[in-house]
Amino acid sequence: MIPRMVQPIVALSLLSVLLVTCTDQEAPRASAVEPVAFAVSCQAVVTAGTLSCGSGAGGGGGPTVTPGLGRSVILGGQGTYVQLTSSGTAYNSITQIFSSNVTVQNLTVQAMNSTDGTTADTGGVKVLFNSGPTVTSGSGAVTVGNADGTGTFTQSSQPFFRYSSGAVLAAGSTTASKTWQFNVPTTVVSFGFTVFVTAQLPADSSVLRWVSVSSPTTQTLRAVRINCVGCPVATAWAVGDSGTVLYYDGAIWSTVTTGLPNIHKINLYALRNTGSAGLWAVGDSGKIAYSANDGVTWNYLANPAPDTALFAIDEVGSGADTLYAVGVGGVIIRSTNGGTTWSRQTSGTTDTLFKTGGPSSHDVYAGGQAGTLLHYDGTTWSPDLTGSAASLHDGDGAGDVNGLTDLWFVGTGGTILHSATGASGTWTPQPSGATQDLFGLLGNHSLYVSDPIGKTDVFAVGSGGTIVHWNGLAWSPMVSGTSANLTAITFGGNQAPFIDWWAVGSGGKILHGIR
Which residues contact 217 (CB under 8 A, 6 or more apart)? Predict the structure, then answer.
């Protein structure tokens, strides 16, 4: 086992108050916030007429700031989160003005200068001076000559240049150039300064980068699960086509040999694991693969609905004793003894079911084909009217320390349904901004008393590399960097600066979502 390590290139810190003004003088904040970041360090050589920028020294450890909607994120990390590029650099010895045309490129997976990915904020993308300008060769003093304003960001009275005011800066996009001018005496040979970039993001406390990691398989992966959320070692499991089982040891993903007969002849569609080393995987032909010792040895469990493909399995309640699995033709099976024995339940539908789960043994859901949604009250399954004809591929809940307060289902054509209670007829369609089929969903259940972001951190993934995120107000897209069909998503850490999300899909694709 390899101990979990916080990503070493984290480069951000949330500001504790909103940016609320676009005047020449930025509104002061209650207190400055020091970013946990690598500043963008720039060096100007006056005599050569050059300006170049790269990552500089890191800032100190900033305070833990309560996440919220629409706060600005301070970013450094040249070439990682942002890219500052200069051109047309020149020095006029008569006016003693050193000038350069500078652009800002957004290298994160989120849109900048927006809280919903679509509507632009008036605050713009600001490049703020963290230190300097300071003369590094020669003599005299250098000052910023044409700043758009000053404000308190990491300290008081910081000059800044504003970009993209009134426009969204999409992921990967570059701003129009802006001319920076510095007052530079002829006695100065070179000078330097450090800057940060600050902007509003739709998911200010969540993933900033999706990184494709090495996968040991080309088979489509259908499910992924972290072993233990918030544990000191980040281990995980994934399953997929042709009986594929993968294990992540905290450093690399590797193939697991189960030893199960004919496992290569079936696809595994769903996975459930517990903190007590129990693992269940279900798939074609009604197979239920089980390991009681964290994947060391495996066996098949008897299924009262043999030869019927199972597409989902989940435990309900606080323990692993009660499990449900669903599949083709409306099949629902249940175990009340940790999977030792299973019994078939009457679902009342012949529609194929793709998802099951719930907060307790008397509050269980199953969703599937043609908008079918069922609810189990501890005695019987009954229809839960959604008003949708889309096939529902996945569902989950989000909430806070007081319990689940939001229920979600996703499906074909970018369908996202929401209900505050889950009651029949209370489901409403949500504008997802996606047209691709959605296959995976995960809500932040806020397992920690100190975690207040449960209802504002929900992900859905789907065809063509689609990733959308709910921030409590709106769904917005994230750039995944892949065209693979993404089938499932899970997380192991959900509080900045440690963010640990995983998504899997076709061709063995594995994405790691980090800050």
Answer: 240, 244, 246, 255, 508
Query: How many other C-beta atoms lie within 10 A of the C-beta of residue 57?
Result: 11
How would residue 400 be classed by pLDDT, with cut points 50, 70 and 90? low
Q: Is-contact 175 148, C-beta < 8 A?
A: no
What is the residue type of 447?
A: L
∠ CA 181-187-188, nearest 5°, is: 50
Report residue 406 as tokens.
Answer: 């939001």
pLDDT of 427 > 80? The answer is yes
The pLDDT value recorded for residue 318 is: 63
Higher pLDDT among residues 65 and 501, named by residue: 501
- In contact, 152 and 113? CB cutoff 8 Å: no
Q: SS3 of 238, please?
A: strand
Residue 13, pLDDT score: 26
Tell me the two tokens of residue 511. Answer: 């994405």
- In the block, which residue shows the tokens 């060769």? 137
Per-position DSSP letters for 9-61, written without gaps between them: T--EEE-SS-----SSBPPPPSS----BSEEEEEEEETTTTEEEEEEEEEPPP
**Concatenated DSSP letters of 222-235:** EEEEESSTT-SS--
pLDDT confidence tier of residue 70, bands split at 50, 70 and 90: very low
Predicted TM-score of the model (pTM) = 0.86
* 91, 46 contact by CB (below 8 A): yes
- 497: preceding bond cis by omega (within 30 degrees): yes
CATH class of 209-514: mainly beta
Cβ contact 511:211 at 8 Å: yes
Q: Where are the domains of the chain?
A: 12-200, 209-514
